[in-house]
Specification:
- It is a single chain.
- The chain is an alpha/beta fold.
- It has a single domain, classed as Purple Acid Phosphatase, chain A, domain 2.
- Helix content is 38%, strand content 21%.
- The strands form 2 sheets. The protein has a 5-stranded mixed β-sheet with strand order 3-2-1-9-10, covered by helices on one side. A 5-stranded mixed β-sheet has the order 4-5-6-8-7, with helices on one face.
- A hairpin with a 2-residue loop joins β4 and β5.
- α6 runs antiparallel to α7.
- It starts with a strand and ends with a strand.
- 39% of the residues are buried.
């Protein structure tokens, strides 16, 4: 079996409010290629950006999810059907109750096990300061909505760089969680997303991979061949 995993599209209600950076037809052609070469495609969360409304809360997130899906209707319809498996992330948790997105998925084939989860569950900084994290997300959304995308981009790039620096070594919360999952779930590979930084790291109990991000016009994804036991990261940047 061949499995692709990709994440963090961040499709918002309006083009000015997100960092997707793709035309819908362009991204659909990319998915065509993945479907032609893979049996299952796992979307690892934060496909949508649903937490940037003026008013915080479930109703606002549901509305923004609906608007984001309406903005890319063909893409949104496609990813809710096989061969896609949709997971939710911290920016589109509402996709759980609305679209049936899962928190995690385990796939076993040819004696090879793969466990997929977005990874925000193990973000110590975000989870220790959840209110501050929500305020940061809201502020970035308001900046984009006001046409101040440059400032929003600056803040987000700093956030990604700082987290990557904090968590680049070993041990760190993501790799510690991966070690636990490799053992508890008896799998060969743990796949996460969330940080927007693609990684392939050999751990004592198996492999850890971060899929990177398909935002800002990038095409980054993981390709797994369970029969060959091959694990490859692919990245194409604009």
């Amino acid at each position: 079996m061949r499995i692709a995993a990709l994440s963090d599209f961040h499709i918002g209600p309006w083009k000015r409010s997100d960092i997707f950076g793709h035309r819908e037809d362009e991204f659909l052609r990319f998915l065509d290629e993945l479907e032609a070469t893979h049996d299952r495609i796992v979307l690892m969360g934060d496909v949508y950006q649903a937490q940037m409304g003026l008013v915080w809360g479930s109703a606002s997130q549901r509305r923004h999810l609906a608007l984001a899906r309406r903005r890319v209707p063909k893409l949104s319809a496609r990813i809710c059907e096989p061969p896609y498996i949709l997971l939710y992330g911290n920016h589109d948790e509402v996709a759980g109750p609305v679209l049936g997105a899962r928190e995690s998925v385990t796939i076993r084939e040819d004696g090879f096990g793969l466990f997929c989860i977005h990874g925000h569950q193990f973000d110590d900084v975000m989870n220790r300061h959840i209110t501050l994290s929500h305020m940061s997300t809201w502020t970035v959304g308001r900046l984009r909505f006001a046409g101040l995308g440059v400032l929003a981009d600056f803040g987000e790039r700093i956030d990604v760089a700082v987290k990557h620096r904090w968590y680049a070594g070993h041990p760190n919360p993501y790799l510690d969680a991966a070690e636990r999952i490799l053992t508890s779930e008896a799998v060969d590979l743990v796949c996460m997303a969330h940080t927007h930084v693609a990684q392939h790291i050999e751990l004592e109990s198996g492999l850890f991979v971060n899929t990177g991000s398909c935002s800002r016009g990038r095409f980054e994804y993981l390709s797994v061949d369970t029969a060959r036991r091959s694990v490859e990261l692919h990245s194409q940047k604009p």
